[in-house]
Automatic annotation (TrEMBL):
InterPro entries: Alpha/beta_knot_MTases, tRNA_m1G_MeTrfase_C_sf, tRNA_m1G_MeTrfase_TrmD, tRNA_m1G_MTases_N, tRNA_MeTrfase_TRMD/TRM10. One of its GO terms (molecular function) is tRNA (guanine(37)-N1)-methyltransferase activity. It comes from Leucobacter komagatae. This is tRNA (guanine-N(1)-)-methyltransferase. Keywords: Cytoplasm, Methyltransferase, S-adenosyl-L-methionine, Transferase, tRNA processing.
Length: 236
């Protein structure tokens, strides 16, 4: 999978050189390209923002630098014919976006090319979303009902959630199945050695070697934890 990121803070994405994401890049499973939006701003001061038309607090990101950056990426995308299924999907993190879920991560993991447009300030001029929404595929996505300062942290979260689902990225693909949200439930509690620690014993069933009983206990634990912490996940 090719992933392009456009941001005024490229340094945020150094985090994706670490751990599993870094190994996936080294092995060619993920081709991550980070673009500094300011390099697409042609004035002397590399201006990417301006005051909001109609008034209001803060600044809004200008459309021209975004168009130059996105046009460059789309032109460079293999087989990027507008509307074709392999045309890149452009994701703009946004407080006003559809909420990112594990189901969306699975859906996006099948894409050949994703582009993340990281806004800052009060956001990006609406005409960027309109322009690229008419020319191709655009989704505004939020990682949750809280306010961040920009799209970088959200993009890193989504890239990790999507990247770890790609074949070969996670060592044991079985571990992807028994995770929270993968089957609609929260994951069961996990234990390791020692069998007793500060007087706290691992549940006896986990030491029994009876795998049917262990699986049943784990499923019941998932249900109980989901009922207690996230009853909304059990709504039909
Ligand atoms: N994904 C995700 C996000 C983001 C996110 C994503 C992208 C950008 C780009 C700029 N920002 C800052 C910003 C914050 C708040 C607002 C709303 N305004 C409404 C009018 O009153 C002022 C405030 C706008 C822009 C971003 C935040 N926040 N939370 C998520 N889950």
């Amino acid at each position: 999978m090719r992933i392009d990121v456009v941001t005024i803070f490229p340094g945020y994405f150094d985090a994706l050189e670490l751990s599993l994401m870094g190994k996936a890049r080294d092995r060619g499973l993920i081709d991550l390209r980070v673009h500094d939006l300011r390099e697409s701003a042609n004035d002397k001061h590399r201006t990417v923002d301006d005051t909001p038309t109609g008034g209001g607090a803060g600044m809004v990101m200008k459309p021209e630098p975004w168009a130059q950056a996105l046009d460059g990426i789309l032109a460079d995308s293999v087989g990027a014919e507008p509307g074709e299924s392999d045309e890149p999907l452009i994701i703009f993190p946004s407080p006003a976006g559809e909420v990112f879920t594990q189901a969306m991560a699975r859906e996006l993991a099948s894409e050949a090319h994703l582009v993340f447009g990281c806004g800052r300030y009060e956001g990006i001029d609406q005409r960027v979303f309109d322009e690229y929404g008419e020319r191709g595929r655009v989704r505004l996505v939020s990682i949750g009902d809280y306010v961040l300062n920009g799209g970088e942290v959200a993009s890193i979260a989504m890239i990790e959630a999507i990247g770890r689902l790609l074949p070969g990225v996670v060592g044991n693909p079985d571990s992807l199945v028994e995770e929270s949200h993968e089957d609609g439930l929260l994951e069961y509690p996990s234990y390791t050695k020692p069998a007793e620690w500060r007087g706290r014993r691992v549940p006896d069933v986990l030491l029994s070697g009876n795998h049917a009983a262990i699986n049943a206990w784990r499923h019941e634990q998932s249900l109980e934890r989901t009922r207690r912490v996230r009853p909304d996940l059990l709504d039909d």
